Hints:
16 helices; alpha/beta; 7-stranded mixed sheet; 2 domains; globular; 3-stranded mixed sheet
Amino acid sequence: MTSASIPRIVGAGSLISVLGFAAAATNLCRAPRLPAAAGPISEPVTVCIPARNERDRLPNLIGDLRRSTGVPDLRVLVYDDASTDGTAAVAEAACAADPRFSVVRGTLDPPPGWVGKPAACHRVSEHAVTQGRGGPGILVFLDADVRLRPDALAAGCAALRASGAALVCPWPFQQAGSATGALVQPLLAWSWAATLPVRVANRSRRPSTVVACGQFMIFDTAAYRGVGGHRTVADSLTEDLDLARAIRRRGLPSELFVAGAAASCRMYDDARALRAGYDRWLWTAFGSRIGAAAVLGVAGVAYVVPAVALAAGRGRVRRWGAVGYLAATASRLCARALERGDRLTVADVAGACAHPVSVAAVTALTVSSHRRHRRGRTRWKGRTLS
């Protein structure tokens, strides 16, 4: 790299950052929010919760679902995926003999060729069929660490029917359980908010423009069965995206709604859990190691280089650095405000100011994930994944 090329690199990175800010600001103004249900849902709704070692979180979600409003024909199936921490017992206690709730105790590991979560989702959906809930209606998948407002489930089901989609993904607000989480978790929403106009993506049938979140997925039951359900994504570590892509490959619509005012999720309690969670799947992102290097290289130029130029550059280089850094900070704030659905907090602002550190942290997590996968050391909740 020559000294003459530095201004061009900083300028190019800052331009990318400005475009990201424009996309995030557009989404803040126009991305669809989860609307309130106009009335009770008139058809059967079956909620499936795959849970492995979730004794501390699952009772909260069960309590939220027991308080749900606007879903008179509701059934909830909790599938204990061979947990080792007593998840099934605490789930049964939380259900408190509510006749709408059932706990299925799974004892088997995933079959050959299956990853744990798709296998658990498939098994619990099959139990829905045996209970006579596999026909017309709505099928919902919820992660055990999600929290719901009483009207969230009805709102999501109403959005599915009003949109005419085969799949609706209400995006929960991503809570951070640690300083590392505050750096990394907001990037999940920012990654699509700063790159893809959601209204355009929702109208598209292209699998490449899909945005999905496995924490909260609402299917037309017939469409889910029609694409093969989770059997279609048996070996996927990102089954939510791959299942949404399978929906679109059939020519069916899928849509994202921002649902931070109605749903939230705290995926990881501390930095150690966060690293293990990202080690599990980040190696699959961007298609390959070369793809990951290319994407993260561009992200570094767009979101790290301008900050360095602002801090250490002079003249035109520093001015371009200031433009890029401020645009990146603004895009992060727009994405967080969109996701939260409420006023920003001091922690949100601090995280946005540390955006270059966040990008560097995700780069390090991606390198770690590739390394552990290559060495066959990827594990999640006591199971080896590679």
